[in-house]
Amino acid sequence: MAFGDSFFKRVEEKTSVDKDTILSLASKLQQNDMKNEGTLREVIQELSKMTGKEVSKEKEDKIIEAVQNDNIPKDIDKMI
Length: 80
What we know:
Layout: H1 5-15, H2 19-31, H3 37-51, H4 57-68
């Protein structure tokens, strides 16, 4: 799935996370097992710090469960 600059601009406007940071996190996920709980927790915590949004342990657990069970939206562009 290819993302255009308009996608990254919308994400940056909503989250203050720039394109380079997003691509860096994506690369990290590609180099690791996306279903690995440790990797997922690390990425969630990193995103939480970058966006200034606190993620509770309960919410983090739900995100990890959704990713591990392939229960995530396929069309990310519509989420933004």
